[in-house]
Every structure is written in structure tokens, then in C-alpha cells.
Hints:
By secondary structure, the chain is mainly beta. The protein is 11% helix and 66% strand.
Amino acid sequence: MKKVLFTLLAFALSVAACYAQKGNNQIGIGGEINFPLGNGYNDIYNPGIGGNLKGLYGIGDAGQLTLTAGYNSFSGKSSSQFGDQTLSLIPIQAGYRYNLKSGLYGEGQAGLGILTTKVTGYSASQTNFAGAINVGYLFKGFDIGVKYYTEFDVFSSFAVRLAYNIPLGDKK
């Protein structure tokens, strides 16, 4: 895990040092509603709520490199035997977003997901490789999108996200 985080950090720093192209730099602050899918998670847990912070580093006129970290919490369904259990998800992902002039965008991401299950007197955590595909629409700084997130055979979810992107200035 340390090697992956070091590689992501080295990549982000090397890209930050390149000023050969112009681009749009932003920080996005958002909230999302997450719906667990498959592997029984959708039977055990209610939809989760959470938030995330996304750095967007402009490359060229339409592209942005992204680095996202977030937190989502899912409570157990009272109708199941796991009603007093909670599941937390911390995704840390790097990606690339392509923005169309119409405001639509597509983004692919890869990184790590940290899943933690908690119940009174017990806690277990695991870290897995994760990927995500996002599509959305940008309008006057607001970012409305949907995301399919997966840790492959461990955990998957579908999320709806609303964020606000704060401009950090364009590179010349």
C-alpha cells in the first residue's frame, strides 16, 4: 500500500511541476449519496452518505488530472440481523477527467478503498484496489455527477454527487 501511495504522490508532484500546457486548476468539495450493490451489501446496508475533496489539475484545454479522497458511512438495515452494524468507505483515487465544451464530462479513476465494518465490541478493516467511472455536468462552478465505484469482487456502489468547484486560477 505504501508503494501505491508513494507512486500516486510522485505522479501528482511531477505533473504539478510541468507548466508546458495551459489548464484549469480547481478544488471540488462535494457530498454524495451512495447505493451499495451486490455481494449482499445492498441487503444489509442502507444507502450511505458522505463527502469528498477533489483536486483537479488542468492539462490542455479540456483535460484535468484528479486526486480524490472521501468518506462514506452506511448504516445497517434494521430489518436485517446487521441492524446495529456500520460500514465506512474511504476511497483514495487518482484519475483523468475530460471536459466537453457543453459542460458534460467523463472521468476514470483508480486507487485504493478502505472498508471498515463496526459493531459494538468489534471492528475490522481491509484495503483493496478500487476503480471508478464518473460522468457529470458542470454549471457555474457546480458539479452534478453519477459514479460507479468498485472494489471488484469485494464491494461496489452507485453514487450521486453534488459538488462545488473552487477555481485556483488558470495556468498561462
